[in-house]
Amino acid sequence: GAGVSQTPSNKVTEKGKYVELRCDPISGHTALYWYRQSLGQGPEFLIYFQGTGAADDSGLPNDRFFAVRPEGSVSTLKIQRTERGDSAMYLCASSLNGRGTDTQYFGPGTRLTVL
Amino acid sequence: AQSVTQLDSQVPVFEEAPVELRCNYSSSVSVYLFWYVQYPNQGLQLLLKYLSGSTLVKGINGFEAEFNKSQTSFHLRKPSVHISDTAEYFCAVSDSGNTPLVFGKGTRLSVIA
Q1: What is the full DSSP assignment across A86-97?
Q2: How far does the CA of residue A45 sit from the closest CA of chain B (Å)?
């Protein structure tokens, strides 16, 4: 079956601009996660959705970052007033029920470059 | 807070040689442990996971890992590597009641012909 998909695969923007990154999880998965991976680092947690609601947004670095999942499926990560430090690979993952034992399946990521 | 330490940032190894990638975690509570692999220009793929029970876990592509609670370690091993194993390997941990994964910084495995 189809895995987790993310669009766009690459996004180049200018400092101060607004960007949206999209994640399409595996069908039927109730949990959806966003992570950020900087060069030479492991993925770092940003936000976790259970259904339509954000169950844990403790990883969002500041109020320029926001994410939604209005229908409990597709999610959009929104970044306002982008800064050069936001440049990174943004990863999305989904799991069946959001339990700690569940495998998280990752998408290929969106590489964001802020000039 | 949970943390994961991958002791080696890069591991070069000759083809058909054995390899061990080290991972230590910090926790005194029940944890679930994972190893993911990231091939160039691809997403993270699960290699194996430890949830409970037998401390030796077998995964895909001939990899295995051993959970050692007293040493808080979860080292990944393969008895004979192939060129195709060249990739970045990440160890990750989650608590029993908290599902976001905490990742290590990764180990780049380079297999040399």
Answers
A1: G-EEEEEEEESS
A2: 7
* Closest CB from B4, B32, B43 relative to A101: B32
Q: What is the pLDDT of residue B93?
A: 92
Query: End-to-end distance of chain B based on CA atoms, in angstroms?
Result: 41
Which tokens belong to A20? 């949206």
What's the rounded Cα separation, in Å, for the pair B85 and B38? 10
What three-state secondary structure class fits B99? strand
Tell me if B100 and A56 make a contact (CB, 8 A cut-off): yes
Cα–Cα dist A37/A20, whole Å: 17
- In this complex, the residue of A4, A33, A100 whose CB is nearest that of residue B32 is A100
Sign of the torsion formed by the C-alpha atoms of A24, A26, A29 and A31 = negative
Distance CA A99, CA B34 (A): 14
Question: By C-alpha distance, which of B84, B91, B78, B70 is closest to B7?
Answer: B91
Strand B10-14, strand B107-112: pairing:
parallel
> What does each C-alpha distance from A65 to A48, A49, A94, A107, B89 come to in angstroms?
13, 15, 20, 20, 28
Query: pLDDT of chain A along its 115 residues, tens only?
Result: 589 999 999 999 999 999 999 999 999 999 999 999 999 899 999 999 999 999 899 999 999 999 999 999 999 999 999 999 999 999 999 999 888 888 999 999 999 999 9
Contact A108 B36 (CB under 8 A): no
